[in-house]
Design goal:
The chain is globular. Helix 3 links the parallel strand 4 and strand 5. The protein contains eight helices and 13 strands. The longest helix is centred in the middle third of the chain and has 13 residues. Helix 4 crosses helix 6 and helix 6 packs across helix 7.
Length: 233
């Protein structure tokens, strides 16, 4: 499995709230968020890890330069206008085949993540598997329409709807077909990861959902302590 991390955001809200470190280097229980992800991925049989950081965060690039792995570590240094643009830049350096993408501030428990990856690797006949969660922590959640019998994703919605159980967890396990959809979105000027996810369904890709009880984001200074407690619990 190949892994990719979007760590190109400015982390402006954290900075405004007094957090001096760049978001990827914010420590959770003594480990930088980006380092925690790298550690989890390597323990989940990573064949490669690709990471994008923005040009302004020189400290993050320096940190990554110090990381020593036995697998390829592809680092892209580029400031982009959105996460989807960052994903596109990563797609140009990632090896072909199955991959898992997430943002640096998406916090989950390692055991949950390992089960998710194992389920994706063991599933045939689908083009991807999205981590979904019933826990709403995002300020603007993306609601996921899931067939409860098959766990097939039927659609993504900005507003809640009758019978909704899950929102997107911001963890995407996909394959080469999804890269084709991404490239088409870029050519059409479609932006935002949620619109890319809608395009996956519109283009007929078979996407499954994998429920994880709780996934949280670190967007504000107060989220740091919450994330630390969540990881410890």
């Amino acid at each position: 499995m190949n892994y990719a991390i979007i760590a190109a955001g400015e982390g402006s809200r954290l900075a405004q709230e007094g957090v001096q470190k760049p978001k990827p280097l914010v420590e959770l229980n003594g480990t930088p968020m980006i380092g925690r992800l790298i550690n989890i991925f390597t323990r989940c049989n990573a064949e490669s890890i690709s990471i994008i950081v923005n040009r302004e965060m020189t400290e993050v690039k320096e940190y990554l330069d110090s990381v020593k792995l036995d697998i390829p570590l592809n680092i892209v240094v580029k400031s982009t206008p959105s996460s989807m643009h960052s994903f596109y830049e990563l797609s140009r350096v990632m090896p072909k085949g199955k991959f898992c993408l997430t943002t640096v501030d998406t916090i989950f428990k390692e055991d949950d993540f390992a089960r998710y990856i194992a389920a994706y690797e063991a599933t045939d006949g689908c083009d991807g598997m999205m981590a979904v969660t019933p826990f709403i922590d995002d300020e603007k959640p993306l609601y996921v329409d899931v067939d409860d019998a098959t766990m097939q994703v039927r659609g993504f919605h900005d507003a809640p709807f009758e019978g909704v159980r899950y929102i997107s967890g911001g963890i995407y396990a996909l394959g080469d077909k999804a890269i084709g959809v991404l490239e088409s979105c870029m050519q059409q000027g479609i932006a935002r990861m949620r619109n890319f996810q809608r395009a996956l369904i519109a283009d007929g890709l078979k996407i499954k959902a994998f429920p994880i009880d709780k996934i949280i984001d670190v967007d504000h200074a107060g989220d740091i302590a919450t994330a630390e407690e969540f990881i410890r619990s």
